[in-house]
TrEMBL record:
Domain of life: Bacteria
All copies of domain Bacterial transcriptional activator, residue ranges: 188-328
TPR repeat residues: 1060-1093
Region spans: Disordered: 337-365
GO cellular component: cytoplasm
Record's protein name: Tetratricopeptide repeat protein
MF (Gene Ontology): adenylate cyclase activity; ATP binding; DNA binding
Pfam family, one: DUF6788
GO process terms (BP): regulation of DNA-templated transcription
Coiled-coil stretches noted in the UniProt entry, renumbered to this chain: 373-400
Taxonomic lineage of the native organism: Bacteria, Bacillati, Chloroflexota, Ktedonobacteria, Ktedonobacterales
């Protein structure tokens, strides 16, 4: 068994938020701890503020050895400072060193002042630096007073009593500078350690060992451990710690080379106690244990190392795993390590530091008065994640860089490219990240290159470095480091300035750093000069990043020169682990295939030094949010024209249509100007065809065009990114890069040329699609209108286009083309019958799209144009038109007016002597749907049954029709869709009466009829009905499938009334699963659509359901507003189902209020009485659905349970039995649960 014991002092932090010492970074202690290592296992034991006397004496004896080793340095010193392990100050009294014990030494300001001066270059600092570093939150006057007091105290502490004049020189002050004496007068262990560690290793092995031991003996713990947050301490602490680990590793290698395995284990133990993840030490530790035949300990040591790496999300190197596998399998190991001396390091050069701390949070990043960033949450999250990753890996990067094992496979990029088109938002994303970084303490350096500057070598980097020096105020410090005074030969010669070797190449980029100087180096090859420049730039960035993390943004890098791209690649490979983030924005479309930057990007991707982020166009919804303050019509126009480009959207929002903003025109011209004139001419002609076109159409449009020439021009446009092609073979479609490009090219044509090209395009389409012009009728109409063609020709094709769109359930397109046809028909003083037919088709589209008022007006206009004495067929059509007027009233919630319209239609049939047939069936169906809305379910069922009977009768008054027919004409022909509608009504009534099985049967039959007729809109409606019934029956998966189908169809055909019902059913589904927040969202969406259509019944119903969801979440104040609106709307339209629903919800909300008022019994009783009264009023209303009655009784039972009355059990038993019988699964479960709570 081998063991080792060591003692160390440490500062501890309790972590309590109220602790002043911890919050100020002082901590508690220092306390002594014993570290005991037995067989590779190290334990720590607390001792206290003082060591036992015998241990203290032993340590003091050991401490004399390093003092003897550095005795020559201490000869002239009067004060010595120990910074390793514990910050202490000692003064020489005659021949003895005495610790400073005055109270002044315990003042944090004094200790911090001395520490800052010791860490400063040449042990000197400006007063402004000290004020900003030590008292950053104090006002200047207060901070100056504190600095003066601290200086006075420190001066007193450094003054030996025996020789005050000599000691006074240890601290020099002036109006601007404060400095400490050098190492000869004021000895510091950290400075002595640095000097010894930086010495080149001796060729004599014994001398080299003594050199290592002298340096190691000085390191008694972390540098200034009591400073917990100061950045000027942390960087120095990390550097000194790495040097100490390297020295221990070198000493262990010497011991292993001499076969002194136990001694090597002692040194490696010390390393692994300090850093369990130091991989070179772990490799040697495993090897040493294997030599001592301690295989089990070696395996356990590897597992501890592996677990430590896992916490940092790292993995062992391949070499370490090979060593472990060899030990695990019992294979012999050769000593794979050589005791090579460490590389000689250049003399220590202090880190370049600004004269005062950098205030990053107040940086002005990017443009001002910008709108909030919209639609870029995912991209910004990726950028923030990389920023945070660089911050987190900074701590462990130094030790991994110093590791002897290459870890290139673990490299993570610190360079990001944002790719996208002009105006897509790359710069805006970079600005947002810059603001975030600035708030987190990063210094943002912004550099941009313009196209006219693309030939200037390193221009983008010159600007970046210049801004870096200005922002960090490093220019004077850097220039002083570059220019070191050297006496010239000869008395009369002026003083020359010799540049620092490593940073000298920066003068090529920053001439302002240069001074009068001779060449330092002989002429080098261009490649060597370039490498020295890259290394100098890297060194400057790394050293600046030690003071503040750097976020360097290179904007529009596509215009940069080749040398700048090479430098970017070099830096991306060499900044790993340093707090430096390189962010470049690039217009990929501006990069030619042969552009050098493409090759550099490819190389960086292979080396894993770069991440690529494609910035894609924003969604239509995001563009809508950006311009939401504008009128709705303008928002829709911008959504269409901007095509996801935020810059274009903002510019369009500032402009007055139809003019194209100059900024957008300039961006479009920038792309076009790279094309040849013939290519631009061809694209102007192609713009006549819209956003996309095919080759054969363009070639037909161009008179006498050579196909090869035309193809060359199209290829030119493709290469420049103006066009995009899709498809393969002969079926290739060309698309313009952006819709605004089409507008821009189109406006470049004269009006007469536009008109001629449009008319030619219409003629070409007519010729190409003879016999099937319905496929391209919409395009023909577009060209005819733009070409100012004859009205009769426009009306003809507009009617064909409308009929074609309606057949495809594209009702918005159909509505548009019917309006075109009616508009141009007015210019022809004829064809009144054709006008009526078009009006009827337009009204049908308006009804489907929820524009009930416009449809109502059109139907009335048609009726007024007709006479009273009509043939039988026309009489039936007129009766059905009255029925459509009633349907419009019903959809608006005006049931009384709806009944009147239906009655008028029936009266026309009676006067015409028509007593049965399809017209009667349709009107009875309309009447039944009105009864159902009013809650008169028996009358609704009877009307639907009569309609079903009439539908089986085939009348003799058929009017032959040809071509496209309207819905009313198809009704009179016996369209089976009407039979499906009647079945659907029967299903709705059965569901309202609580006969869910019967409802499911009728609705399924209706769906089959609609599917056979391929009627998308009605399939969507009946699927929505089925989902509602399935939700009530607890068959949620089937309900979800039906709802998805209904929603898809509603979105395809633009049926917004159906969308409102679908959203409501989604709310029912979420509520049944007690997802009240989700249900609230769905009901809110449903109400918005109901408001658009002025559907008062749905507004009242959905407001009541929304109030219930809000009440379940405890949002009683907003729920009160919704239930009030519901009740007022229900009373206004005198609808019992709506009023009953609202009253039951009101009672439920009062019950919830009563539960919250249980600490106020009087208020609770009052609320329960009011709840009972509201619910009982609702239950006495006629026309309530079966489900609503059960819900009301369940709510009443909930009140009874809280009141402790006996009726609770009776009501709950009744509700449970009825709900089970009617298959209302959730109501049955709720009643059962409440019965268990009832008294």
């Amino acid at each position: 068994m081998s063991s080792k014991v060591s003692y160390r002092q440490q500062i501890s932090y309790c972590g309590k938020p109220q602790c002043r010492k911890c919050s100020r970074g002082i901590g508690h202690g220092p306390y002594w701890y014993e570290y005991r290592t037995v067989n590779g296992q190290t334990t720590r034991t607390y001792i206290g503020k003082k060591l036992p006397p015998e241990i203290q004496a032993r340590l003091e004896k050991v401490a004399q050895s390093p003092n003897r080793l550095i005795q020559d340095e201490l000869e002239g010193a009067t004060v010595r400072v120990f910074t390793f392990g514990h910050f202490r100050l000692e003064r020489r009294t005659q021949r003895q060193w005495q610790p400073v014990s005055e109270a002044g030494w315990q003042q944090p300001a004094v200790r911090s002042l001395l520490a800052y001066l010791l860490c400063s270059p040449e042990r000197r600092a400006r007063r402004s630096q000290l004020l900003a570093a030590l008292w950053p939150t104090e006002d200047p006057e207060s901070a100056t007073r504190r600095l003066s007091r601290a200086l006075s105290t420190l001066q007193h502490l450094l003054t030996p009593r025996v020789s005050r004049p000599k000691a006074t020189s240890l601290l020099q002050t002036s109006d601007e500078w404060i400095s400490l004496a050098d190492q000869a007068a004021l000895w510091c262990d950290a400075s002595a350690f640095t000097r010894l560690a930086s010495r080149p290793p001796s060729t004599n092995e014994e001398e080299y060992e003594r050199q290592l031991r002298r340096a190691i003996a000085l390191y008694n713990g972390d540098f200034l451990p009591e400073e917990h947050h100061a950045p000027w301490v942390l960087s120095q602490r990390q550097k000194l710690r790495q040097d100490w680990l390297s020295l221990l590793l070198a000493l262990a290698d010497l011991s292993l080379k001499r076969n002194e395995t136990t001694a090597a284990l002692d040194q490696l133990d010390r390393i692994l106690i300090a850093d369990p993840t130091y991989e070179p030490a772990v490799q040697r530790f495993l090897y040493a244990l294997s030599l001592l035949k301690r295989r089990g300990e070696a395996i356990r040591a590897y597992h501890r190392f592996y677990q430590a790496l896992q916490k940092e999300q790292l993995s062992p190197s391949a070499e370490t795993m090979q060593i472990y596998e060899a030990i695990r399998q019992g294979h012999p190991l050769r000593f794979p390590f050589t005791a090579q001396p460490r590389r000689e390091r250049p003399p220590e050069r202090p880190i370049l530091r600004p004269e005062k701390p950098i205030q990053t949070g107040s940086q002005q990043i990017g443009r001002t008065h910008q709108n909030p960033l919209v639609g870029r949450e995912q991209e910004l999250q990726q950028l923030q994640a990389l920023l945070q990753e660089i911050e987190e890996k900074q701590h462990g990067a130094a030790q991994r860089r110093s590791s002897a094992v290459p870890l290139y496979t673990q490299r993570r990029p610190q360079c990001m490219f944002l790719l996208g088109d002009a105006g897509i938002g790359k710069t805006r994303l970079a600005e947002e990240l810059g603001r975030i970084g600035s708030q987190r303490g990063w210094l943002v350096i912004w550099s941009r290159v313009y196209q006219q500057e693309s030939g200037i070598p390193y221009h983008i980097w010159t600007e970046a470095l210049r801004k870096l020096l200005v922002e960090t105020e490093l220019f004077p410090t850097l220039r002083s480091k570059l220019l070191t005074p050297v006496p010239a030969v000869g008395e009369a010669a002026p003083e020359l300035m010799l540049p620092s070797a490593s940073l000298q190449p920066l003068k090529a980029l920053l001439p302002e750093l240069a001074g009068p100087q001779p060449p330092l180096y002989p002429s080098l090859s261009p490649e060597q000069d370039q490498l020295r420049l890259w290394e100098a730039t890297q060194e400057l960035l790394i050293e600046a990043s030690q003071s503040v993390p750097l976020l360097i943004v290179l904007d529009d890098i596509q215009w940069t020169d080749s040398s700048s791209g090479e430098l970017l690649g070099y830096l991306a490979r060499h900044i790993d682990g340093y707090p430096i983030f390189l962010l470049a924005t690039c217009r990929e479309s501006e990069l030619a295939p042969t552009h050098p930057l493409r090759n550099y990007i490819a190389h960086m991707q292979r080396e894993h030094t770069i991440n690529m982020l494609q910035v894609k166009p924003l969604s239509r919804e995001a563009i809508g949010k950006m311009v939401a303050h504008l009128p709705e019509e303008m928002v829709e126009r911008i959504q269409e024209k901007a095509a996801g480009n935020p810059f274009f959207a903002e510019e369009l929002a500032r402009s007055t249509p139809p003019a194209l903003p100059g900024s957008i025109a300039a961006a479009l011209d920038h792309r076009l100007n790279r094309l040849s004139r013939p290519c631009q001419h061809t694209l102007c002609n192609a713009a006549i065809l819209g956003g996309s076109f095919e080759f054969h159409m363009l070639s037909s449009l161009e008179h006498d065009a050579d196909e090869d020439t035309l193809l060359e021009q199209l290829e030119e446009a493709l290469q420049s990114g103006v066009l995009i092609e899709e498809g393969s073979g002969s079926r290739i479609t060309y698309h313009f890069w952006h819709p605004l490009m089409v507008d821009h090219l189109y406006k470049a044509l004269s009006r007469i040329r536009r008109a001629r090209l449009h008319q030619r395009a219409a003629t070409i389409l007519e010729d190409m699609y003879q016999g099937r012009t319905d496929e391209v009728a919409a395009a023909i109409v577009h060209h005819l209108i733009r070409g100012d063609a004859e009205p009769a020709r426009i009306v003809h094709y507009a009617e064909i286009a409308g009929d074609h769109a309606q057949a495809l359930s594209a009702f918005a397109e159909a509505e548009k083309h019917y309006q075109f046809a009616l508009h141009y028909l007015e210019k022809l003083d004829q064809q009144s019958e054709r006008r009526t037919a078009l009006q009827e088709r337009l009204a049908e589209c308006l009804m489907i799209r929820g524009n009930f008022q416009e449809a109502h007006n059109l139907y009335n206009e048609i009726l007024q144009a007709q006479g009273h004495a009509l043939p039988l067929y026309e009489a039936q059509k007129q009766a059905l038109l009255h029925g459509e007027v009633g349907r419009a009233w019903r959809n608006k919630g005006e049931t009384t007016l709806a009944h009147q319209a239906c009655e008028q239609g029936m009266q026309i049939l009676r006067e015409a002597g028509i007593t049965s047939g399809f017209a009667w069936a349709r009107l009875l169906y309309q009447q039944g749907s009105i009864y159902s809305m009013e809650g008169r379910y028996t009358a609704a069922w009877e009307a639907a049954q009569r309609a079903l009977d009439y539908f089986s009768y085939q009348p003799d008054t058929q009017h032959p029709t040809s071509g496209f027919t309207t819905r009313l004409e198809r009704t009179l022909q016996g369209d089976q869709v009407n039979l499906g509608n009647i079945r659907r009504l029967l299903g709705q009534v059965a569901a309202a009466e609580g006969r869910l099985g019967v409802a499911l049967e009728h609705l399924t039959i209706a769906r089959n009829i609609f599917e056979q007729a391929e009627h998308k809109r009605l399939i969507g409606h009946v699927s929505c009905d089925l989902s509602y019934v399935l939700i009530k029956m607890g068959r949620l998966k089937e309900a979800q499938a039906a709802l998805r189908h209904a929603r898809t169809l509603a979105e395809q055909i633009g049926d917004t009334p159906l969308m409102g019902v679908v959203y409501s059913n989604y709310g029912e589904l979420a509520a049944s699963q007690k997802n009240y927040e989700e249900a609230e969202s769905w009901y809110q969406k449903s109400i918005v659509l109901a408001e658009q259509h002025s559907d008062k019944v749905y507004i009242s119903m959905r407001c009541a359901q929304l109030a219930l969801m809000q009440g379940e979440q405890g949002k009683l104040s907003v729920a009160t507003r919704q239930i009030t609106r519901s009740i007022r709307t229900a009373r206004a339209i005198q609808n019992n189902p709506c009023l009953g629903t609202a009253l039951i919800v009101l009672g439920t909300l009062r019950t919830i209020q009563a539960d919250e008022a249980e600490t106020i019994p009087i208020l609770q009783k009052h609320l329960l009485r009011c709840a009972r009264r509201d619910i009982e009023r609702a239950l006495h209303l006629p026309g309530l659905e079966a489900e609503l009655l059960l819900k009301g009784k369940l709510a009443l039972a909930a009140v009874a349970v809280r009141q402790g009355t006996a009726e609770a059990q009776t009501l709950l038993a009744e509700v449970e039995a009825s709900a089970t019988r009617s298959s209302f699964t959730f109501l049955s479960e709720q009643a059962h649960e409440l019965r268990l709570q009832a008294p």
